[in-house]
């Protein structure tokens, strides 16, 4: 039975073509809703279980302003799989690794992971690409968006701009890559990733994307595992986070912010 399963194509030729052309691929009903519901329950429990580490000085946790009150609110654990067994299982699920591997034509290695809560009122993210212009950053970097709640325009779903991944890094040399400058994409080509629990969306590290504020009364929790090709550096998640934390400390120290830590 196992051999029969492995002999079937993980993704269809149309899906592979869509990925190559658009740098974005949506797969509906990929995970059982019961599995996602269990992870959503665990995500809620994390807020109480790890309240002590939810600190603006902690490099693991991120705060964003509320567009109504201006207050900074907790919105993300990055990384999260060492805190959440459910997220850990999703990130390393054989079905997901097989799908990412099919896009790569190579084995997939987990590179990073984060759980974004996006409660009501929280600001979204400006237009950007996930690829970081670091010497060690894999060009094969891609991210999987796994919604724990329904995502739509009202609660600030992600918007992607298909096809631009073929142009590589859109930020001119010497300019910051976040946010991207106005005019680098055709605004009319934005595709909102309206998703339900069980669906997933995959997007290339060079695919421009953004999200609006959550103007609903609902949360928009999403788990984001990211990967790289085995042949492009192998398993390098610990190395990535060490480099990322050093970069973050340097960035904040340049702005006069000290006392950062990671737990």
Plain-language structure description:
This protein has 263 residues and is of the alpha+beta class. The protein has 6 helices and 10 strands. It is globular, with a radius of gyration of 18 Å. Residues 1-7 have low confidence and may be disordered.
Task: Describe, in short, the structure shown.
26% of the residues lie in helices and 19% in strands. The chain has 263 residues and is an alpha+beta fold.
Chart the SSEs and their pairings:
Elements (H helix, E strand, L loop, with lengths): L1 H6 L5 H10 L1 E4 L5 H17 L11 E5 L6 E6 L7 H7 L2 H11 L3 E9 L25 E6 L10 E3 L30 E2 L7 E5 L4 E3 L10 E8 L7 H18 L9
Number of helices: 6
Largest sheet: 7 strands, antiparallel
The class by helix and strand makeup works out as: alpha+beta
Helix content class: 25-40%
Order of helices and strands: HHEHEEHHEEEEEEEH
**Span between termini:** 44 Å
- Average of pLDDT: 95
Strand order of the largest sheet: 1-8-5-10-4-3-2
Number of strands: 10
Determine the strand fraction and express it as a percent band. Answer: 15-25%
- Point out poorly predicted stretches: 1-7
> Rg, please?
18 Å
Overall shape: globular
List keywords for this structure.
263 residues; alpha+beta; 7-stranded antiparallel beta sheet; 3-stranded antiparallel beta sheet; 10 strands; 19% strand
């Amino acid at each position: 039975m196992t051999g029969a399963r492995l002999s079937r194509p993980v993704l269809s030729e149309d899906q592979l073509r869509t990925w190559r052309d658009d740098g974005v691929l949506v797969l509906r009903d990929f995970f059982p809703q019961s599995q996602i519901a269990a992870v959503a329950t665990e995500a809620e429990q994390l807020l109480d279980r790890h309240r002590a580490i939810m600190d603006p000085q902690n490099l693991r946790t991120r705060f964003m302003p509320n567009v109504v009150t201006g207050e900074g609110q907790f919105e993300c654990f990055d990384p999260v799989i060492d805190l959440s067994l459910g997220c850990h299982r999703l990130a390393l699920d054989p079905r997901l690794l097989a799908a990412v591997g099919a896009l790569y034509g190579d084995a997939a290695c987990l590179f990073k992971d984060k759980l974004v809560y996006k409660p009501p009122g929280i600001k979204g993210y400006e237009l950007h690409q996930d690829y970081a212009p670091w010497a060690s950053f894999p060009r094969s970097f891609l991210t999987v968006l796994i919604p724990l709640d329904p995502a739509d325009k009202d609660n600030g779903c992600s918007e992607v701009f298909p096809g631009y991944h073929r142009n590589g890094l859109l930020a001119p040399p010497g300019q910051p890559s976040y946010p991207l400058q106005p005019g680098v994409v055709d605004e009319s080509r934005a595709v909102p990733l309206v998703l339900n629990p069980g669906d997933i969306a995959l997007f290339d590290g060079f695919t421009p994307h953004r999200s609006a504020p959550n103007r609903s009364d609902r949360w928009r929790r999403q788990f984001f595992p990211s990967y790289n090709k085995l042949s492009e550096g192998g398993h390098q998640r610990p190395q990535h986070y060490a480099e990322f934390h050093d970069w973050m400390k340097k960035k904040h120290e340049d702005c006069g912010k000290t006392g950062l830590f990671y737990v």
